[in-house]
Structure to design on (214 residues):
C-alpha cells in the first residue's frame, strides 16, 4: 500500500534526524545566531539530502554511491576543513541583541551548505542501506513510485523534526541571557571543530586503504 511506504519513510526520517551530529549543531547555532529562518533552511538542507540518499539507497542506484565512495577522500577532506572553519567562526561569534533578518540568498546559502555537506558524505547513503537492512525494507529497484513515496516520507519525517526543534529553539532563545548564549556558541564551536579534526585524522588510514585497493 502506498501509505505504508510514506509512514515507513517518516519513521526512518525521524530516526536519522534526531541524533545530534556536527550538522545538527551547525543548524542549531544558525538558529540561535541568525534566527529560526536560517536554522530551518539549514535543517531542510539536511532533510533534503537525507531524502535523496534514502531514494538512492532504496533504488540501489550504484552510479552515485560508487562516485561518492570513489572520491570520499577528497569529499571528506573538504568536509573536514569546512567543519573546522564553521566551528571556528561559531566559536568567535558574539550573540547579537537583535537577530538579523536573513532572506533570499542568505537562506539559499544556508540550505545549500548543509545539503552538500550531508549528501557528499558517503556515510549518509551507507547509513540508509544499514537501516533498510535492519528494518527489512526490500529493494525497490524498478519500483519508482514506491521509492518516491518512501523518499517523500523520509523528507517529511526529517523535516518535521527540524520544524519542531527550531520552534522550540525560537522560544528558548527569547528566555536566555546573552552570556549563556555565548557559552553555547563556544562549546558547540569547539565540538564542531572537533568533528572536523576527527574527519581529517581519519583520512590517513583511508588513503592507505585506497592505495591498497588501486
Amino acid at each position: 500500500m502506498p501509505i505504508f511506504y510514506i509512514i515507513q519513510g517518516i519513521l526512518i526520517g525521524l530516526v536519522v534526524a534526531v541524533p545530534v551530529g556536527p550538522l545538527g549543531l551547525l543548524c542549531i547555532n544558525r538558529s540561535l545566531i541568525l534566527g529560526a529562518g536560517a536554522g530551518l533552511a539549514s535543517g531542510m538542507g539536511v532533510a533534503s539530502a537525507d531524502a535523496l540518499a534514502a531514494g538512492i539507497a532504496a533504488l540501489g542506484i550504484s552510479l552515485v554511491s560508487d562516485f561518492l565512495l570513489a572520491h570520499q577522500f577528497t569529499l571528506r577532506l573538504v568536509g573536514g576543513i569546512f567543519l573546522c572553519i564553521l566551528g571556528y567562526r561559531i566559536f568567535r561569534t558574539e550573540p547579537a541583541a537583535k537577530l538579523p533578518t536573513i532572506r533570499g540568498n542568505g537562506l539559499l546559502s544556508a540550505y545549500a551548505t548543509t545539503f552538500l555537506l550531508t549528501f557528499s558524505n558517503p556515510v549518509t547513503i551507507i547509513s540508509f542501506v544499514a537501516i533498510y537492512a535492519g528494518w527489512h525494507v526490500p529493494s525497490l529497484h524498478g519500483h519508482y513510485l514506491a521509492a518516491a513515496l518512501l523518499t517523500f516520507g523520509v523528507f517529511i519525517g526529517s523535516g518535521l523534526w527540524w520544524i519542531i526543534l527550531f520552534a522550540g529553539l525560537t522560544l528558548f532563545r527569547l528566555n536566555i541571557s546573552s552570556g549563556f548564549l555565548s557559552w553555547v556558541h563556544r562549546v558547540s564551536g569547539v565540538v564542531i571543530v572537533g568533528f572536523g579534526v576527527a574527519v581529517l585524522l581519519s583520512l590517513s588510514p583511508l588513503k592507505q586503504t585506497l592505495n591498497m585497493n588501486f
Observations:
- Residues 208-214 have pLDDT under 50 and may be disordered.
- The CA atoms of residues 41 and 111 lie 5 Å apart.
- The longest helix spans residues 144-173.
- The chain has one domain: 2-213.
